[in-house]
Amino acid sequence: MADQSIIRITKELSDIQRTSDLSLAVACRDIDVRNVKALIIGPHDTPYEFGFFEFAIRFNKEYPRKSPSVNGITTNGGRCRFNPNIYASGKVCLSILGTWRGERGEEWSAAQGLESILISIQSLMSGNPYENEPGFEEANEASDKKNQKDYVQKIRHESLRVSVIQRMEEYLGLTPEGAAIAQQSAADQDQVDIDAEDLDDAAVPFEPFKDLCKRRFLWYYDNYLLAIQKAKKEVKDHQAFVRMPFEGSNNSMEGKFNYTELERRLRNIKLALDNEVVKWAKEGQIAHDKEMTVSVNLRHQHEQVVQAFKNQGIPHDVQLEDNNPFVWVITYFGRPMTNLDGGLFRIKIFFSTRFPEEQPRVKFCTRIFHHRIAEDGTACYFPNQLRKDDVRTHIEAVFAALEEEDPAYDPRTLVNPEAHKLYWGGADERKNYNRRLRRSVQQSMDDF
């Protein structure tokens, strides 16, 4: 009989991976479903905003009768306590995990699962985490008010420094100074004669969120810069963090503010990501010349998309830049009778030779003022999770994001702070947004 515990875990993983929740991600090695990695993206309007917080989850053989164990990984090597309930050691204090005494009815039950655990952890990442500490829930003395402010300030700094900047530098092979650490290129790897069967899966680094974090960094880059600009007005560089009453010597968040340094490192990361797609194009041309499978697949998909658009009378044009199947250029014609009517936009889709494991990056080359398009042209869109290898679903999702007339409010799509604020403001702000969108549409003909 199949292991019912394994079946339950597999289903829960699949459910989360198929969901449209933009703030949770889970993954495991195929050979070890009981050891799961999870990523929680910090909630908007909190000091954790758009940070990347990773957790290791170990399911025992008695799951779901017994809760899994959860350990925080994003701790700066055990030196950073991000929350009263998330220790520097990685311990997560939650009643449903049995790591903290809770009220009756808050303990673990088989009706709960992985998603409820992650949502519970995410709920700890509040706008005022100071009150998460037992005994401080209703602390309202003047000293508490000051501590609350000081606590938020240092969490915001370390969320940027540790969960975003350090993580991205590791992914990109950058030193804090911005120098590149020598890495093997995809073209070089292709020359190495290694029998895949001789590789030990356990010896290969498991980084399931690398591509996701890169794409989300591009989404939230302007928000990171705004957070730094705001914080610079509140604290001075080299000002020491304030220790909280509940922090101990080995379980605290110590350090000094240095937003000038964080901004420099943040910009280096953005530059490296922009250069990465240039590298993709070069690697793609090599793959095309060698007629590698991924190249043949992308060229075939391009032909299918062109034919489908022609058959359906869709006016948009789709070309390959310099005949390179790893760089698609779309000419988008604004939909009639909408704010996009009369617009003409050039959109590029960049593909890695590791597609679909690495998802494409979509960028508007023609400027547009839109709440789902970042200032640098990065598009915020949601492809079908079950068909991420189908390029047409990516294109359709980009068009849907651009043309959606009455979307539900979702702060996790905050990629253009200025446009987002106007779009979701009052009636006057929305009118201003529409005017600026129309102005960019009219300008697109000249900019194209």
From TrEMBL:
Any single Gene Ontology cellular-component annotation: nucleus
Say where the protein is mainly found.
cytoplasm
Protein's GO biological process: apoptotic process; negative regulation of apoptotic process
For this UniProt record, the keywords arranged alphabetically read as follows: Apoptosis, ATP-binding, Cytoplasm, Nucleotide-binding, Nucleus, Transferase, Ubl conjugation pathway
Question: Which Pfam families does this one have?
Answer: UQ_con
Chain ranges of the UBC core domain: 4-164, 296-446
Q: Where in the cell is it found?
A: Cytoplasm; Nucleus
Note whether Magnesium occurs among the keywords: no
Q: Name one GO molecular function term.
A: cysteine-type endopeptidase inhibitor activity
EC class, as a word, reads transferase
Could you say which EC number(s) this protein's record lists?
A: 2.3.2.23
The protein depicted here goes by the name Ubiquitin-conjugating enzyme E2 Z
Its source organism is: Colletotrichum orbiculare (strain 104-T / ATCC 96160 / CBS 514.97 / LARS 414 / MAFF 240422) (Cucumber anthracnose fungus)
